[in-house]
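Quarterly update, task 2.4: cytidine-5'-monophosphate-bound model.
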Amino acid sequence: MKSYSLIAPGKINLYLEIIGDRADGFHELVMILQSIELADVIDLKSNDTQGITLHCNHSQVPVDETNLAYRAAQLMCTTFADSYANYGGVDITIAKNLPVAAGLAGGSADAAAVLVGMDLMWNLGLTQPELQDLAAKLGSDVPFCISGGTAIATGRGEKLDLISNLNSLWVILAKYKNLSVSTPWAYQTYRKNYRNSYVSDVEGIISRSDRVRSGDLMNAIVELARSLAPIGGAGSLVKQKGRKIGELLYNDLEKVVLPEYPKVAELRDIFADKRVLGTMMSGSGPTVFALCENEDQAEEVANQVRDTIVDSDLELWVTKLGSSGIQVA
Ligand code: C5P
């Protein structure tokens, strides 16, 4: 019997611009995605019962086929029917460390880990692009979760190009435990309110994609990585480049989520008043993140926010930006 333990890091969106409508009903996007070190741990074990079981230590996480990790195992079983017949099913155990329904791709990361782990368990030898093609069938964020790091994502979010790594910075994540935002609701509301800015024909999408505003942020990321290259990097230069990145954070979905969820808007305002590089809502929310120069600054600001918002429902995490996707533990 074979078993694997995998680390499944979450992500934040440093940039999310909605370009227009796609023929498949999704939105054409330009995003800059960034892994974080905060991660779930997924244990996989071959079983000979020809079935899939899922266990999770978090009560809000479903353990049936509504869970994306479960669907990832089903996809592997149907795509590689011979291996399924040969090795049997799989028992999946998720140790949840990432906040649930948070805009941090926790479910997508778990599904990515199942694809990578079953590839190893079944000795399939799939390449990263092959794994990412399977991942795209499950959800727009799953391909990025496989490779991780810092990447520009286009199309539905599944076309990825790696850019210089940003893993010297730290981040505070803040989320109200009982607050969740539906991703389809956020995109549908954006479509309703901003349809007149959409382009939907192929040529329009290409020419609009050439005019996205993510270029400045990409340049700032590359410059920060360069300023770190000399041993240790120059502290003030890193701070200056980090601030530039903070100023250029962008998320179109804030336009619909913040007015509807004043507690999320308030959280963002409070971070904006603190000594951080920048703050933004991640994905469709409701997590708000604040970029920080180092761990000490992140811990200090997290404590200040805990003192400012006295609400037992508010949860805060401090983690480093990450450089990798799914890893074997
Ligand atoms: O791909 P995923 O399942 O993560 O998407 C969740 C929802 O987000 C979709 O059902 C859709 O409403 C919206 N979405 C979108 N365009 C994208 C990605 C997601 O409209 N590129």
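Highlight for this quarter: The chain has a mean pLDDT of 93.
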